[in-house]
């Protein structure tokens, strides 16, 4: 028995192997139980300990040993209930008696593959190093050589276009008495184009996000358009949309996504005859930056009644999307079938474009799209692109950085003379360190017409705990302690959609001001400096050469 006990203890893990170690202060704790009640993964639990205390009292003290039973809060020594470092326990503790502390010497990944399945998580890439985007500087500052603008007084128009823009010679226009008029005799297909704010909210589905979070984002977008006059658009993500929203006038501010699982498309098709407005665009998802070559996954614990109804599936089943659309085997076929059929469904009034993962094959996709008149653009999702559930090996070891990927695609369009025709949308890691406007401006100057944000808006609008140190990252499990990525009413009731909407508005208004501050010294006010790479510099010669920008140190 004694030998078996030793063997059993030998196979236990010490807390030094865990990513976060919970520091608990006995002298401050009042044993109220709040911390153990709110921990989303049950990493801490109430327990009792027998303590031996040596006392020496009285006029002739003789040391005596006294054993007492005390109530404590212990960290669970079980890798299936590891502390994620979210810090929810610290928020509810009235006496600052408990706090998770990051353990840089952890061996977490060595032990999370039990059962023969790789570790899956939500969140973002665990890489705290400085990204290429955050190393870029804006060094073209007009002073006396060029007319600079006053960002505070000058009138700006920070707008971009979503949709294919025909070159001047292909436009069906005629000049008459100094006016440009539409030539009705020319049978030319005019692609639909939307004017949008150059920062858009990327694809996060109803299902991946909680109802209050999605509602808050939608209300914020509607307010920005209706009240502030900022044409911000938001992508639905895979999983459909609320039937009420599909039939409302606010649909024009949303991009509907169709992905390989086709979840939610029954509701969309049934709503087509009743739509009072066209959507801003249709996005066909072929890949995500966080897990290139892999499909989507909404885990069973998030498929509750509302999600099951919108998506047209049973409750409590994993919803896995295939890695690609199963009836398409090449980009040519995808363009011919998907883009044209979606364009036809809305009478060629809505821009339709694909979204792909950042990779070395992005240029091949772009070159095929450039030849097709119905393709409205291309969205490239870089390696830092968010996800609801992905294998850790995909998130941390696969993908292509967005800066160089968008740059080489833009330069490819330049060689074809089509850089002003097919818009590129960049996504993945934008605002990772909070520099939203700076990252967006840098990508625009590298060649993007617009950028899409996801994780940034979750952190800015709803105070997401996640970071690059594997903190929290419970997005896929339905246990989000903030109520952002869960379908559990006990958790998502913590989130106020009105406050989320308010923060969305504040974030975009602030980004608008900062973009003006960046573009004003470059003398740009009425059009975006798309591809204006001479305004950028970096302190690394290899990066400067790769991006085709100047080296400055």
From TrEMBL:
<dbReference type="InterPro" id="IPR024188">
    <property type="entry name" value="GltB"/>
</dbReference>
<feature type="binding site">
    <location>
        <position position="86"/>
    </location>
    <ligand>
        <name>[4Fe-4S] cluster 2</name>
    </ligand>
</feature>
<feature type="binding site">
    <location>
        <position position="83"/>
    </location>
    <ligand>
        <name>[4Fe-4S] cluster 2</name>
    </ligand>
</feature>
<feature type="binding site">
    <location>
        <position position="93"/>
    </location>
    <ligand>
        <name>[4Fe-4S] cluster 1</name>
    </ligand>
</feature>
<dbReference type="InterPro" id="IPR017896">
    <property type="entry name" value="4Fe4S_Fe-S-bd"/>
</dbReference>
<feature type="domain" description="4Fe-4S ferredoxin-type">
    <location>
        <begin position="20"/>
        <end position="49"/>
    </location>
</feature>
<dbReference type="GO" id="GO:0046872">
    <property type="term" value="F:metal ion binding"/>
</dbReference>
<dbReference type="Pfam" id="PF01645">
    <property type="entry name" value="Glu_synthase"/>
</dbReference>
<keyword id="KW-0408">Iron</keyword>
<keyword id="KW-0004">4Fe-4S</keyword>
<feature type="binding site">
    <location>
        <position position="89"/>
    </location>
    <ligand>
        <name>[4Fe-4S] cluster 2</name>
    </ligand>
</feature>
<keyword id="KW-0028">Amino-acid biosynthesis</keyword>
<dbReference type="InterPro" id="IPR013785">
    <property type="entry name" value="Aldolase_TIM"/>
</dbReference>
<dbReference type="InterPro" id="IPR002932">
    <property type="entry name" value="Glu_synthdom"/>
</dbReference>
<keyword id="KW-0479">Metal-binding</keyword>
<dbReference type="Pfam" id="PF13484">
    <property type="entry name" value="Fer4_16"/>
</dbReference>
<dbReference type="GO" id="GO:0051539">
    <property type="term" value="F:4 iron, 4 sulfur cluster binding"/>
</dbReference>
<keyword id="KW-0314">Glutamate biosynthesis</keyword>
<comment type="similarity">
    <text>Belongs to the glutamate synthase family.</text>
</comment>
<dbReference type="InterPro" id="IPR017900">
    <property type="entry name" value="4Fe4S_Fe_S_CS"/>
</dbReference>
<dbReference type="GO" id="GO:0004355">
    <property type="term" value="F:glutamate synthase (NADPH) activity"/>
</dbReference>
<protein>
    <recommendedName>
        <fullName>glutamate synthase (NADPH)</fullName>
        <ecNumber>1.4.1.13</ecNumber>
    </recommendedName>
</protein>
<keyword id="KW-0411">Iron-sulfur</keyword>
<dbReference type="GO" id="GO:0006537">
    <property type="term" value="P:glutamate biosynthetic process"/>
</dbReference>
<feature type="domain" description="4Fe-4S ferredoxin-type">
    <location>
        <begin position="72"/>
        <end position="103"/>
    </location>
</feature>
